[in-house]
Design brief:
It is a single chain. The protein is mostly helical. It has one domain. 62% of the residues lie in helices and 4% in strands. Its main location: other. Belongs to the FliE family. It is found in: Bacterial flagellum basal body. Keywords: Bacterial flagellum, Cell projection, Cilium, Flagellum.
Length: 104
């Protein structure tokens, strides 16, 4: 199964030793395009939800290629992806409120 770009953050975990590996950062290009990253994450979450919805429809129509376990896994992936986006939104709002409450 393919989860997509969100896995690039998870891929740095070494499952053999249960150790988190450092992420290689390109020192020359330190510009981070936050709106583009956020747009890509939201697009990926939308793709995950679309895949889950398509698998549900195929399973309900009797497609033998889609099993119940595949449908349940896709539903859980979709749920976790939405929860991730909600938490990102909450952190953004929290950071915004903290910045707005700073004394100058």
């Amino acid at each position: 199964m393919f989860i997509g770009p969100t896995t690039k953050f998870i891929n740095h975990i070494n499952t053999d030793n249960n150790v988190i590996q450092p992420i290689n950062v390109n020192k020359t290009n330190t510009t981070i395009n936050f709106p583009e990253i956020l747009k890509n994450v939201i697009t990926e979450v939308n793709n995950i939800q679309s895949t889950a919805a398509n698998h549900i429809k195929k399973f309900e129509s009797g497609d033998k290629k889609i099993s119940l376990s595949d449908v349940m896994i896709d539903i859980q992936k979709s749920s976790i992806a939405v929860q991730m986006v909600v938490q990102i939104k909450n952190k953004i709002i929290s950071a915004y409120r903290e910045i707005m409450n700073m004394q100058l």
